[in-house]
Amino acid sequence: MKPGKVYLVGAGPGHPDLLTVKAYRLIAQADVIIYDRLVQEECLAHARPDCERIYMGKAPGRHESRQNEINDLTARKALAGNTVVRLKGGDCLLFSRGGEEAEFLAARGVPFEFVPGVTSALAAPAAAGIPVTHRDLSACFCVITGHEREDATGRLLELDWEALARMDTLAVLMGVQNLRRIAGLLMDHGKPGDTPATLVQQAYWPGERVLFSTLARIADEAEAAGIEPPAVLLVGPVVGAKTRLEQKDRDLERRDGARLGTRAGHRAGRIQGSAMLYPIHLALEGSRVLVVGGGNVAERRVERLRRAGARVRLVSPDVTPALADLRDKGAVEHRARPFEPADLDGVVLAFAATDDPAVNHRVADEARASGILVNVADDPLFCDFTLPACVIRDALVISVSTNARSPGLAAALRRRLEAEYGPEWGTLTALLSEARPDLLNLGLSAAEVTARIGRILDSDVLDLLRAGDLPAARVRLRRGLGLPD
User: Fold this and answer.
1) 58 catalytic, yes or no?
2) What 3-state DSSP class applies to 211?
3) Residues 13, 79 share a domain
4) b/e per residue 241-277 (b: at least 16 CB within 10 A)
5) Buried b (16+ CB within 10 A) or exposed e, 429-463
6) Contact between residue 116 and residue 89 where contact means Cβ atoms under 8 Å apart
7) Do 162 and 234 reside in the same domain of the chain?
8) Is 399 inside a domain boundary?
9) Cα 220 from chain centroid?
10) Cβ(310)–Cβ(287) under 8 Å?
11) Together in a domain, 14 and 97
12) How far, CA to CA in Å, does 272 sit from each of 32, 402, 408?
């Protein structure tokens, strides 16, 4: 069998908007995605439904054994003919072991490609408003790891601290655990203790924090503030207050609820017999959503929300094994207790999915008091919105709703549609999306574009896709749209 290909992809600092265009495209195309602890789940939201997602975060103390597992897994998946995205936080080649993984692949004849990402060494200072170089203050910038490593003889490998102490701007990745030692070594080798220093924790994540201090005080103040990994240490005059740049209303700020805002004064649920519900596909990527309940209904809600890129807060004393697995991987926030009104803080939508109507109604009442839209499982009178039955074929989503009159009818129609619209329709959607820029350049009216796509549906393009002949289908589609091959 011809091997597939591995893309070693930098996912950037965490915010999905900071993925590169190529990283975003590869995630959407991958057969297998192997990702690390520093990759947020919402960065995977647009992956194919049939894509195999494998979490391979490294637990403390298991880095070497875990790395061997990652190397072996990545090679095996590619040798089976898959397109594999090996997704790493930050950049794929900066203190990420991307070079070692590439060597392992090369030794086994597996094709690979590096796709760089935004490193935290640059993203963290940007989040804090710190320029790493400045014409008047810093002509050089150095990045080091804060991890200590032994050589083959067991001798601790030492950096040239005297040279590092002379650097205008120094960034230390993975240095929280050794922070006191690092600061001490820099001062021992000539770096003044009053040199400005800062720690940026979880840049562009919801838990982002910034601590400004000096080199002499940074270790004590970080301990007092409870700064935890991942965090980047920055040392140098550019960290000082005179060069610190305040970014007002930062577009990339991770604020819960910023997408939808609130609906003050909204009190009632949906009234049976009222006008039809407004159909809408909602962008939830990065938004916090509350799910109350831990059973099978809640599991289905969480699965769909995660595919939409939402950040799920799950509240229930007990959860299904599948939900427990997501919790253990850090994919959902789990509060293992009964619902409390404070659980609604910062959320934009709420789902009540317990088997206790009284609890569900309380969730609905508290949500509306906070101006938050709510869905109550199997109780349309308490719903602000209902959930359609969906046929999902990659980017193609066919939604069926009966305005909560007959959910059974919607489910039956979905089954018929699932039989009629197979995976080839998802591929067709991708081909049309690929051709859309060229089609727009033709300057056609919307009616003519629709007519041409209609003729595609009547052609043999779908038959070619069912037969697995993607190249021929692409050529036939482009010709049918009036585009060059």
Assistant:
1) yes
2) strand
3) yes
4) eebbeeeeeeeeebebbeebeeeeebeebbeeeeeeb
5) ebbbeebeeebeeeeeeeeeeeebbeebeeeebbe
6) no
7) yes
8) no
9) 33
10) yes
11) yes
12) 45, 12, 17
Verify whether residue 36 is a known catalytic residue: yes
Beta pairing partners, 87: 9, 35
Residue 442 to residue 9: CA distance in whole angstroms:
35
**Final residue of a structural domain among 209, 239, 269:** 239
Domain end position, chosen among 359, 387, 415: 387
**Does residue 253 lie in a domain region?**
no
CA distance 344 to 364: 11
From the candidates 22, 168, 174, 365, give the one annotated as an active-site residue.
174
Q: Which of 433, 224, 267 is nearest to 366 (CA)?
A: 267
Q: Is 186 exposed, middle or buried (0-12, 13-18, 19+ CB in 10 A)?
A: buried
Q: Residue 95 region, left (φ>0) first, then alpha (ψ -120 to 50), else beta?
A: left
Domain identity same for 364 and 343:
yes
Q: Considering 5, 22, 56, 58, which one is annotated as catalytic?
A: 58
One of 36, 355, 365, 460 is an active-site residue; which one? 36
For 78, the domain range is: 5-118
CB 122 within 8 A of CB 98: no
| Dihedral class, residue 429 (left if φ above 0, else alpha if ψ from -120 to 50, else beta) | alpha
Are 300 and 226 members of one domain? no
pLDDT in tens, the chain (485 residues): 789 999 999 999 988 889 999 999 999 999 999 998 888 877 887 888 889 888 887 644 445 547 888 999 999 999 999 999 999 999 999 999 999 999 999 999 999 999 999 999 999 999 999 999 998 899 999 999 998 765 555 454 588 999 999 999 999 999 999 999 999 999 999 999 999 999 999 998 888 899 999 999 999 999 999 999 889 999 999 998 666 777 766 766 554 432 222 223 333 344 343 445 678 888 898 899 999 999 999 999 999 999 899 999 999 999 999 999 999 999 999 999 999 999 999 999 999 999 998 899 899 989 988 889 999 998 876 788 888 889 999 889 999 988 777 888 988 999 999 999 999 999 999 999 999 999 999 999 999 999 999 999 999 999 999 999 999 999 999 999 999 98
Q: What gap in Å lies between CA 56 and CA 50, rounded to an integer?
A: 19
Residue 485 counted as domain residue: no
Tell me how many domains the chain contains: 4
77 catalytically annotated: no
pTM of the model: 0.53
| CATH number of the domain enclosing 199 | 3.30.950.10
Q: Residue 73's domain is classified under what CATH number?
A: 3.40.1010.10
